Amino acid sequence: MSRAEYVPAIGEQFNSVWNRGLKYKGKNGKEFDMKFFTPESHYEYNIGLQSCYYGITGVGKNNSKSFRDMIGFPKDKTLIGDSGGFQIASFKKRGEVCNLTPIDSLRWQEANCDVMMNLDIPPTLDKIPTYEDFMKALDESVKNFELFERERKRHDNFLLNVLHGENIKLMDIWYDKVKDFKFDGFAVGMKPPWDPMIQAMGFMYLWEKGEFEKESFKWVHFFGTSGKNVVPAIVYMASKLPSHIRVSYDSSSYNIGSIYRTYYLPLDQGPNLSFGNKFEKINPHLKQLPCMCPVCSSVGDVNELNTTDIYAGTLISLHNLYQYIDYNNILNSIVNDKDKFIDYLRQVNNNEKTLMSIEFIDFAMDKGLKNAVDKYAKWLIPQDLNKSKQVGIFNF
To answer: Most exposed residue of 103, 238, 243, 333, measured as fewest CB within 10 angstroms of its CB?
Structure first.
């Protein structure tokens, strides 16, 4: 069986800290390099994701080194590239033109990444797509995929195809256009990303198409999600695949620590804490951190997280990231015992749709996807994509 891997999408705040080589001196005088992937880090994690748009235009744009060398990402760790399609679609929505070209995306990923994404154009960012929007995005994506297949120079890494569509009809249209490309797996871009039923349907679609049985299939990735409600479904999906296929999912929401000084309690149990200018209003009586993770264990005084320097936000983000990693590891460790897995989810999650997605996967594997979609139709209605409605650590 395979194991799901949480992939932290690297924010520009981290890149700035790493580019400057900043270190944090914790209690007892021990120094940490503020990363999450080296022996000098608070903890050493083996995977990360970077959008090529920020890799090209961000803090390292004038650096003579490659982006990977600039941030010191080790060769024995896995760096996934994001092709920048989200940024292209975002610029277009604002009536602007993104200065990222398809060949720029491909070459940057080849220079830096162990896993590359094809340059897909998402059919939507914040609403259910119209059929016209869907077809325009598909046509543009196919042109980019053709370029990536034709111009690809590096073959010692993986290049993933991309699947979109929020129902079987749309998935059929998209899949029929992209299925014959010679790539190394699929990334799932189903919307909304935090809906476990929608993600499960995308997975089962690839399952029924026989993608996971192909010798060339090495990786399946779920775009932009780490929600507390969706991760159990992804972990369960991974448990159904052989170990030579890696399964991953990414998000950057842990970085809310750097942006807003928001501190997640372990496993998102209870209200979030706030530091900086919100500390006195939200949790003024806090005297010690309610966590013993490697980051929090290095902090001598809670007021260190109230300072205005870049260290405070980075430490909170590293703490938040550890919570995602810990939750993922717990689920992977117990998924083989389905009864214990479900019991645990009822205790820490208690989301009916999460439990229903696991039922859906089992039913689809037994009776077929079409029958599963018919049976669970009311659970598969696409939801409003307004992220402002989401709260808490694992919602994006």
So the answer is: 243
Could you tell me where the beta strands, DSSP code E, fall in 66-122?
Answer: 78-82, 115-117
- For the record, the structure tokens of 54 come out as 């920020």
Q: How many other C-beta atoms are found inside a 10 Å radius of the C-beta of residue 31?
A: 11
Among candidates 4, 76, 91, 16, which has minimal Cα distance to 45? 76
* Average pLDDT along the chain: 92
- From the list 55, 84, 82, 59, the residue with the least C-alpha distance to 68 is 55
Task: Tell me which residue range forms the domain holding 60.
Answer: 4-255+322-389
- pLDDT, one tens digit per residue, over 11-25 is 988 999 998 899 999
How big is the CA angle at 78 (ends 57 and 45), to the nearest 5 degrees? Answer: 100
Residue 285 lies in a domain: no
127 is a domain residue: yes
- The span from the CA of 381 to the CA of 126, in Å, is 16
Q: Is residue 58 part of a domain?
A: yes
Q: Domain count of the chain?
A: 1
- CATH number of the domain residue 212 falls in: 3.20.20
* pLDDT tens digit sequence for 269-322: 778 999 999 999 999 999 999 999 999 999 999 999 999 999 999 999 999 999
Helix (H) or strand (E) holding 160: strand 158-163
> What does pTM read for this prediction?
0.94
Q: State how beta strands 219-222 and 185-188 pair.
A: parallel
- Identify whether the C-beta of residue 48 lies closer than 8 Å to the C-beta of residue 37: yes
DSSP string, 128-141: PPPHHHHHHHHHHH
| Arithmetic mean of pLDDT, 114-136 | 88
**Sign of the C-alpha dihedral, residues 131, 132, 138, 141?**
negative
Largest CA distance in the chain: 61
> Does 272 map to a domain?
no
Residue 9 DSSP code? B
